[in-house]
Amino acid sequence: MHQSPPVKRARWRDIDWIVDLVTATVAPTTLGAWLVPDERRRPAVLAAAARIWVEHALLFGDAFLLTDGAAATVWFHRYRPIPPPSRYGERIKDACGEHVDRFRRLDRALGACHPQEPHNHLAILAAPPDTQRASQAAAVLAGSHRLMDTFGLPIYADLYSDADRWLYQRLGYRKHHEVVRPDGARVDLLWRPASPTRIHPTPFAGPCPDQQLPEHAMTPG
Question: Which of 27, 54, 174, 183 has the greatest number of C-beta atoms within 10 Å?
Answer without folding.
Answer: 54
